[in-house]
Design goal:
This protein has 295 residues and is α+β, with helices and mostly antiparallel strands. It folds into 2 domains: 2-46 and 206-290, no CATH class; 52-88 and 97-195, no CATH class. Helix content is 25%, strand content 38%. Strands 1, 2, 7, 8, 9, 10 and 11 form a 7-stranded antiparallel beta sheet that branches. The chain has a 4-stranded antiparallel beta sheet with strand order 4-3-6-5.
Amino acid sequence: MKRIVFMLSAALAITALPASAQTQNNIKRIGVYAENGEIVLGEASTALEVEITVRKEQVVVGPYARYAQKYLGVRAPLVDKTSYSIVAADVRLAGEQPAVSKTPCDCVEVASHVAGSETEFARLLPNRMSSIEQTPEAAAKQLAGDIFSLRRHRMDLITGEAGENVFGAGLEYALKKIDELEQAYLELFFGKHVSTTVTTTLPVRLSADKTSYIVARFSESGGLLPADDLSGDIVLLQITPGATVYPQSDPRGKVNYRYANDAQCTVLFSQQSLCNTILPIFEFGRTITVVAPVK
């Protein structure tokens, strides 16, 4: 009678979990056994994936940057600059989809009006009224004059001073082209801002005697780096086993099941938590023995 009661309680404990969780995430049969006429070697291990999203911010100095204050009254960046930042992180079971659907993050955004180029700038047309080659400062002065001219033309169009034949879709198109041309000229002074966002997935294989894993390193000047690159600070995966309640084993049992531990998985950088979630980890779980396989 005691044996029947124990087997029933073990069966209820196992079948209380969803079917997918029993076979994949929370409980697995382990050891050598026959199933569907085949010999199976059942193992229970956990593989995690840490996903890190990094944004690269790049400032590309304009060719006339040093003349911006003189001819436009505003200082421009004078030195190219690149910096990196971690903008998101996630940890999950290997092969699982992110819990929250996200837009693909491998993308480049360029604050520029030269299509398809991160470093190329618009060409300023030479002064065709003179055969004398312009110095950079003379070209910058001409460019500044063209910018102010574009602004005057825009105002004339808006106020109707440019003529009564420009209206409707034609006016909208003209204003759009003036805006694009002005921005292309302005970036010759103020440069470009290139923002690149890349998501990297890093596999982590766990072991029962280890709760901390260096998954990568990171620096503001170098971005995401390999785990063995000492020039960056550590991106750490910390696993804290939880107080999971397991069924009792039957001393007469011969069938083994491995229960996962509901462990807290935290990704840390500079002592700050980037993400935190509870995942079933077999390495910190417990093996339960029952008399017969539970269907």
